[in-house]
Amino acid sequence: MGLLTVLKKLKQKEKEMRILMLGLDNAGKTTILKRFNGEDIDTISPTLGFNIITLEHRGFKLNVWDVGGQKSLRSYWRNYFECTDGLIWVVDSADKRRLLDCKKELHQLLDEERLAGATLLVFANKQDLAGALSFEEIRDVLDLTSIKTHHWQIVGCSAVTGSHLLEGIDWLIDDISARIFSLD
Amino acid sequence: MEASADLMPERLLRRGRELQFERQRKKQDRELEDTNRKASNYFLDQFSKSHLEIEDELNNLASGVVENSLIPSSIHKISKDIQTLQKHFSASTMILCLHDVRKSQERIQMLQQRLHELEEQLLPKKKFGFKARKPVNKETVHVKVADEIDCGETLQKKLIENDFGVKNKTNESIIMRGNSILDKDVVLQNLTGCTVKLMGSPGTLHMSNMQGCTILSGPIVRSVLIENCKNCKFVLPCQQLRVHSSSQCDFYLHVTSRAIIEDTVSVRVAPYNWTYDEIDKQFSLLGWDLTKNHWDSMDDFNWLASDKPSPNWCILPESDREIWS
User: Fold this and answer.
1) Do B187 and B302 fall into the same domain?
2) Which chain A residues contact residue B189 at CB under 8 A?
3) Does residue B26 lie in a domain region?
4) N or C, where is chain B less crowded by C-beta within 10 Å?
5) What is the mean pLDDT of residues B94-117?
């Protein structure tokens, strides 16, 4: 039995997944996290450091890490890469001025060796705002179709209204579990 | 007596058997040694023969008898021969005495080294090939990068062409009211010495590259982002405030969460103190809890020590606070 098989067996027992949520500042990462957890989202401050919650969903245990997106924190992102099964990249669909920054940061992440095996879910957040770009537009601006190294999907959502959040998470869980748990 | 007479031959017999065993063992040892020696001699013979062959080939290479086009294949063959010799040697170390092991290993190493030297000397072609290809590669990469930047710039232009707000003005006074800015993403950019009054409730407010400006606003529904501003005064209520790379700015704030500064120095804060007609109505439309105002608790992302306050911001003394009209 190889080490990989042992690890897979161990994870299968717990049905545990480690999800890392990243994105530029003001993308709505913490709001998504709190919305999942049923917490108040009206008084969220910019994240200084990180938040972590554990969610039970469809019999899986999801450890979701939400790391602050301010410039000064981005260099610490790499400390959270290890053992990541799924990467959620959150985009402020209304912040057109910084979409190219957003694209650059995302593609840099995808070059990371320690994230090589992770599934990528892109949340085109803030779809409830009038000025938001559609998820198709976000897909094109971020050049997602060029990604060949990761399984990826983009979902337009709104953390404030809660729309399509579950849809995204369900796809992420399906893709990860197909990879980790069913290879016996 | 009889008993001892019986015993004697038995003892003699046992002794005889022992002697015989010993002789046999010695003979076997000798034979083993013999075969070992024979095998070892055989190995050394073969080794010398192969060694000589490889040396000949190396000499051929060094003397330049080998045709240029055949050099790579010749080098390849020699390297393989050396490998075979090494394998043969590794398999035979147990029958060799220490001296032979060391000696043979040395000789193999010498061969390898010589081959290596010859390879470097005779195949400069390969190196030259690399050098010739590199600049070509660089050029194509360069072209690609340029393309990407172009494409990025046009994309960026397209993305912000429908920006709503005020840009590139000096020493002007600008007022925007009510519905014209309601829930809009307002952008203020490249302003010097301007006063901007937003008498309404924008969705977000982005401000960058401003000097010596005064910005007053009604309640901003979501967030305010400030970048590269100097010597400015901001009078704003909002949910979130982020200030990047700015200095010498005063803030009169109503903020429902904690404001943050990053790469920013010399900030002073005071509570929000602007009123105009309809401001109460605009506030009540948002449904904020007006008793919650965190104007005096900023997070400095460049100051992570929790036991000492950040030196980059302070509270504006009451005597220095301005009254807005």
Assistant:
1) yes
2) none
3) yes
4) N
5) 85
Domain total in chain B: 2
B25 half-sphere exposure, CB direction, 13 A CA radius: 6
- Give the pLDDT confidence score for residue B94 in this predicted structure: 75
Q: Which domain holds residue B207?
A: 165-320
Instruction: Tell me if residue A12 is catalytic.
Output: no
Over the stretch A25-63, which tens digit does the pLDDT of each residue have?
A: 999 999 999 999 999 888 899 999 899 999 999 989 999
**Selected residues 183-222 of chain B with any CB under 8 Å from a CB in chain A:** 183-185, 187, 203-204, 206
Pick A25's closest partner by Cβ from B163, B185, B242: B242
Q: Is B145 a residue whose pLDDT tops 90? A: no
Residues B175 and B314 grouped into a single domain:
yes
Task: Inform me whether the pLDDT recorded for B1 exceeds 70.
Answer: no
Q: Are strands A16-22 and A86-92 parallel, antiparallel or unpaired?
A: parallel
A95 marked ligand binding residue: no
The amino acid at residue B230 is K
B272's tokens = 């929000």
Please give the ipTM for the structure prediction. Answer: 0.84
Å from B256 to nearest chain A CA? 6
- The verdict on residue B140 lying in a domain is no
Q: B134: pLDDT confidence band, cut at 50, 70 and 90?
A: very low
Of the given ranges (A42-46, B2-6, B163-167), which has the lowest mean pLDDT?
B2-6
Task: Look at residue B133 and tell me if it is in a domain.
Answer: no
On whether the CB atoms of residues B243 and B228 are closer than 8 A, the answer is no
Cα of B189 to nearest chain A Cα, Å:
12
Spatial distance between the Cα atoms of B182 and B198, rounded to a whole number of angstroms: 10
- CA-based torsion, B160, B161, B166, B170: positive or negative: positive
Same domain, B173 and B97: no
- Please determine, for residue B138, whether its predicted confidence score (pLDDT) is greater than 60: no
Do A23 and A90 form a contact (C-beta atoms < 8 A)? yes
| CATH code (residue B71) | 1.20.58.1250
Q: What domains appear along chain A, each with residue ranges and CATH number?
A: 18-42+63-181 (3.40.50.300)
